[in-house]
Structures are given as structure tokens and as C-alpha cells.
């Protein structure tokens, strides 16, 4: 069964649609989702396409990625729709000028440790060069609004002077390391957004996502949370490659997408917004334990291999302060328990 025909998955999509009531105000508009086959991008595309069906609206979706075959397989359900079009392209190259979308979301990026270590140049340039091409395209096509999907990692390591990261915090990153390519690429891309706002009067909003999980994850994803989910989906013990004392903000992909859609409609241009939910602030070992409990399994400890460890974040505490986003009118719709249970069940159906 394809993920976007699974009743449990569709139920989650519907919850997002019901939660973001203003989605109907996008009727007649168009959206270019760059990184459409990724965890966040694919959930967002599915949400918009279901909204078209359930609400009787017409939002045109351009789903962009480097691999057409992968996009065609993932979004086969929408191939006959006039409101859906696949765009094959590398975001680091000029975008097709014939694609004129009202809204652009740049979500293309390497997002897991093994990719950071094995494709360090691509990790940096997909953000830096990719963001430049997206912003040039936004200028050329007079886009209404552009969203650059950033990350909790731009805050670096908590220096011990705050409990939570607010949007104006700037922690420590050792830029002279291989692992720094991801957060530094995101940081300079945010700066580039501000430059385009100043020079070209672009309307840009920057959601900063915490560690995101969900059933749309790539099975090759080497993030710890994704590996835990794969263990749980296979009804295996959960493998923890550290003591698990890292304390992080997590969010279900459904809540991440609802926040992105909310900010696409209600965010203030030039502003960055932390995207998180307090109930999902967990130590890594607690996350592992909750996933182990689903199948009555246990947590075991295993050292990472050398390549994987090079991509690991050095941060041990990374909790986002989400009050700015909450004050803008957003709140979460999913509980931690249902998010983990739905993710494991849906991934189990895929593996």
C-alpha cells in the first residue's frame, strides 16, 4: 500500500488540514515545494493535495526534486491531476523560469549524519548555492512569499547560559570541522535571505525546525531518532550509540508541516520562528525507551562506526523556545504518544 493511500496516514493529513483553517484561503494559488521527496516536503505535498480533494479547492503544487523517477513513484496518485506537476531539477542550478509559483518553500538539504560525512560539499552547497538560486527565482517570478526551512542546528552548542534557544541566540560552532558544514550552510543561507529582503524587497519567512521525525522519513536516514524508529518498525531492540543524555527538542512531521503552512500564511517577512512543542522535549534515551515500549523491547548500547560518528552533532542540549511561534497563533495538534505510534506503524507497513 502506498503511504498516501494508507488510512492512518490520511487521518494525520486530515488533522493538519483541519488545524490550519486558512489553507482554504490558498485556493487558486500555486506552491513550489523544493525537496518534495524529503520527509517534510512529501508530507506537505500530500497535505495540500488532500486539501484540494477534501475542501474542493485548487492549489497547484509543483513538486521539485533531482530524481524524477523517485518523484513519480512517490506521487503516482497525483499524476492525472491538473493541480500537480513534477519538476526535475538540481536546486544548485538555475530553476526553470517557466515555473511561476505564488509560494516557494526551499526544503532541499542533506539532513542526516552519514550524508554530512560522505557528501560534505553537497551539504554546504545545497544550502548556500541552492538558496541563492531559489531567491533569484523568487525575484524573477515575483513570488508572493518564500520560506527557507532552517534548523535548530544554527544555534550550535548551548554555552550553558540559557535553558532554551530563542531566535536571537547564537551558540558556539567550531567552523573549522567537517560537521560544521550543515549548520554553517544554514546560517549563511539565512543571512542571504536577509540580503535579498534588503536588496530586492522579497517576502521571506524562516521556520527553524527542531529534530523532526515521521513516517515520511527516508529509510536511509542515519539520524538517531530515525534509526530508533526503524528498529521499532522491525520489532527489534532499540540501538543507542551513546549514553543517551542528549536533551533535544523533537517534533512530529505533521506538526512541522502545520507550522510551515501557518507561517506561509501568517508569518512576518524577515522573521525566523522556532518550530517545536514542549511535550516533545526529550533526552535521547527517553525517546529510545518510548519506542522500545511499543513492542516490549529493550534499549541496547552500541558504538557508532567511524564514518557515522564524524557526522554526529556535538551538541548535548538543544531545546527551542517556541513562544514566538505560539504568539503568532500556532499550536500543535499531535500528542507524543500518537506521533510515535503512528510513525512506527506506518514505517512498519513500508519496510
From TrEMBL:
Keyword Nucleotide-binding: no
Entry superkingdom: Bacteria
Keywords, ordered alphabetically: Decarboxylase, Lyase, NAD
InterPro entries: Epimerase_deHydtase, NAD(P)-bd_dom_sf, UXS-like
Required co-factors: NAD(+)
Residues in NAD-dependent epimerase/dehydratase domain copies: 32-275
Signal sequence bounds: none
Keyword NAD recorded: yes
Coiled coil regions in record: none
Descriptive protein name: NAD-dependent epimerase/dehydratase domain-containing protein
Amino acid at each position: 500500500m502506498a503511504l498516501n493511500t494508507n488510512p492512518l496516514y490520511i487521518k494525520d493529513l486530515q488533522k493538519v488540514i483541519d488545524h490550519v483553517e486558512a489553507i482554504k484561503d490558498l485556493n487558486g494559488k500555486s506552491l513550489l515545494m523544493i525537496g518534495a521527496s524529503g520527509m517534510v516536503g512529501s508530507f506537505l505535498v500530500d497535505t495540500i493535495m488532500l486539501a484540494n480533494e477534501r475542501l474542493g479547492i485548487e492549489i497547484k503544487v509543483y513538486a521539485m526534486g533531482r530524481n524524477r523517477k523517485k518523484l513519480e513513484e512517490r506521487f503516482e496518485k497525483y499524476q492525472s491531476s491538473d493541480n500537480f506537476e513534477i519538476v526535475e531539477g538540481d536546486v544548485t542550478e538555475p530553476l526553470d523560469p517557466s515555473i511561476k509559483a505564488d509560494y516557494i518553500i526551499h526544503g532541499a538539504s542533506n539532513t542526516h549524519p552519514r550524508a554530512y560525512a560522505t557528501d560534505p560539499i553537497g551539504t554546504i552547497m545545497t544550502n548556500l548555492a541552492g538558496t541563492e538560486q531559489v531567491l533569484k527565482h523568487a525575484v524573477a517570478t515575483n513570488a508572493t512569499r518564500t520560506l527557507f526551512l532552517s534548523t535548530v542546528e544554527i544555534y550550535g552548542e548551548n554555552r550553558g547560559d540559557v535553558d532554551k534557544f530563542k531566535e536571537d541566540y547564537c551558540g558556539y560552532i567550531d567552523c573549522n570541522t567537517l560537521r560544521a558544514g550543515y549548520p554553517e550552510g544554514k546560517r549563511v543561507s539565512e543571512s542571504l535571505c536577509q540580503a535579498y529582503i534588503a536588496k530586492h524587497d522579497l517576502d521571506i519567512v524562516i521556520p527553524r525546525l527542531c529534530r523532526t521525525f515521521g513516517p515520511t522519513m527516508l529509510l536511509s536516514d542515519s539520524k538517531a531518532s530515525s534509526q530508533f524508529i526503524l528498529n521499532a518498525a522491525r520489532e527489534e531492540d532499540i540501538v543507542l550509540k551513546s549514553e543517551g543524555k542528549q536533551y533535544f527538542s523533537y517534533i512530529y512531521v505533521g506538526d512541522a508541516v502545520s507550522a510551515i503552512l501557518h507561517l506561509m500564511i501568517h508569518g512576518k517577512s524577515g522573521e525566523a520562528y522556532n518550530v517545536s512543542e514542549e511535550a516533545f522535549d526529550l533526552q535521547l534515551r527517553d525517546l529510545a525507551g518510548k519506542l522500545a515500549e511499543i513492542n516490549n523491547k529493550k534499549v541496547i548500547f552500541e558504538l557508532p562506526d567511524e564514518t557515522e560518528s564524524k557526522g554526529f552533532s556535538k551538541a548535548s542540549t538543544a531545546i527551542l523556545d517556541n513562544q514566538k511561534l505560539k504568539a503568532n497563533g500556532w499550536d500543535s495538534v499531535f500528542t507524543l504518544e500518537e506521533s510515535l505510534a503512528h510513525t512506527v506503524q506506518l514505517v512498519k507497513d513500508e519496510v
